[in-house]
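Task 17 of the worksheet. Students: predict the tertiary structure of the chain below and write it out as C-alpha cells. Keep your answer in the requested format; marks are given for formatting as well as content.
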Amino acid sequence: MASRKPHLASALRTLMLTGAVMVIMAWISPPSAYAGGPVVNTSLGEARGKVTAEGMSAFLGLPYAKPPLGKLRFAPPVPLTTWGGPIQADTFGPACPQPAIEPSAVMNSRISEDCLTLNVWTPAADSGKRPVMFWIHGGGYIWESSGDRIYNGARLAARGNVVVVSVEYRLGAFGFSHLGEEPGSGNAGVLDPVMALRWVREHIAAFGGDPGNVTIFGESAGSYSVTSILGMPEAKGLFQRAIGQSGGSSNVRRLDYATEATRLLFKNAGVNTVAELRALPWQDVIRAQEAVMKGTLLPEAIYGPVVDGVVFSEPPLRAIARGLSSNVPLLVGFTRDEGRWWMVETPVLRLPAVTPGVMSLAFPYVGRSIPRGKSIPQAELVYNWEYPGQVLFPNLQAISMTQDIMLRIPTLRHAEAQVAHKPNNVFVYRFDWEPPAPEYPLLDLGSPHGAELAFTLGNPEGWLELYGDKGIPTALRNQVMDAWIAFARTGNPNHGGMPTWRPYNLSDRPTMLFNHYWGRTTSKLSYDPDGKTRAFWKDRAFDGMDPPFLPEDLSGNALQFLP
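Model answer:
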C-alpha cells in the first residue's frame, strides 16, 4: 500500500497541471463551434446544432436517406444506417435541383443532387414528448427549398412548445419521372417525405418530440403531398393528423401522361436510355426539364405523383374515400384569391382579353373540367352572379375559374372524402386577408396563393414582395398559429383567441374565414361561402383521373392561343 503513494501523488500533480493548461487554453483560444450548443445522440450518430434567436435548438441539414446519386437518381429513397461520424447541423442542406427562380438567393446559391436532408427545431432536446409538426414546402413540385426564410420553423416551435421538422425532397424530373422498368421512380418526390417520416418515428424522441403525435402539414405542392401521403398505404401509421393549405386531391397523374412527360424529357436531353439520362450532369437534366415546361401555360401542372400500380394502385382521393386514413383528423383550406398570384408569374394573365374561353384553349384542362352537360358560357354566368365585381374584368373571372379547378374544389373534395369517416374532426378555412404586395401596386392581388404562409410559420420577412417590410397583423398571426398548434395537439383547432370553429359537414359546410382589417381581427365562421360556384363543379371528382391531364396537354403548343 505504502509503495503506491508516490505514484498516486505524481498522478495528482499531472492531473492538476493538465487541468490548469486546459483552463489557460480555453481562456486564450476562441470557443469551439459547439461550446454550449445543443448536441443530440441518435443511432445514426451525433448531431451538433445551434441555438436560434428565439431560444430554440436547431438541427439543420440532417441527412435522412442515402444521396440519390448514380443508380439512385430517380429511384425511391434508401434509408441511412449511419452518418459516419458527428454531424455539424447548424446550416441548411442544399436545395434539390431546380430551375432558377427569383428572388430567393437560398434556392439558387446552394443546389446539389445530394439534397435529402431535414431540419429540426425544438424547445429542448429532452424527454418532453412534444407534438411534432412536419412541414412539406410548396413550389409546384418544381421549385423551392426548406431552407427558404419563409419556412423557418423556430417561431412556430417557440410559440407552441412543439417540435417542427421540415424536409427537402426531390423536385421536377428528379422526383417525378416515371421510368416504366423501375418501380416507384415516378413517385420519388413523395416517397422522400415518407422516408423522412420514418426517420421522425425512429429518432425524434431524442430531440424532445413525440413520435406518436405527428402532424403532417404543407402548402401548395406540400398540401398536394399531404393528400397523396394520406392516400398511400405505405405511409399509414407514420402520422396522426394532417393539415393541407391550398392543395387537394387532383395533382396526381395518369400513367400515359407521366410517360409522355418522361418521353419529352428524354427527347430534350438528347438521350435514349435511362442509363444515359443518369449519366448527365444534373444541370443538363434541368435544361431538358425547362424545355418541357415551355410547352404549357402552367408548368406546375406537369409533375406530380403517378398512379403507377406500385406506390399508388388508385388515386389517393379514392383511397381516402374508402377510409385508408379514417383515423386522421384533417384541417384544410385555401386563400380567397388563389390564382391572382399567377398574374405576377405570367403577366399575360393581366390582360382583359384572357377570357375563360381563351384560358380553356391555352390550358385545355380548364375546358375539360367543365361538368358534362354544362358549358363555359354557363360557368361565366355563375361566376358573374357570385362575383359581380369581376364582370368588367374577364381575366379575373378566368383566373377565378382556374383557381377553383386547380386548388379550391380539389381541397373541398379532400374534406368531403374524409368527412364520411371523421364527421367531427374535419375543419375547413378560407384565408381572406389581403397582403399589401408593395412591389405590385397596380395589380389587385387580393388574398393570393401563399398569403397565409407567414401566419402559419410566422416569418413575413421571408417574402417581402408580398408582405412588405411593415410586418403582418400580430393578432391574426397569433390566431392562425394557435389554431394550427391546437390542432397538432388535440385534432381540434379551437382555442380561446378565436370564434368557435365548427367541424365541416355536407349540409351547411361551416368554414372559418380568417381576416383582419381596420386594426382588428375579423375572423368569423361562414356557411358554404361561394356556394354557387362550388355547386357548379359538383359532378367532377377532381381526383386526378376525372378530369384527366392528357398527354397532348404536354406535347402541344398551348401558348399559341394566347393574345
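Marker's comment: The longest helix spans residues 394-419. Residues 96 and 112 are 6 Å apart (CA to CA).
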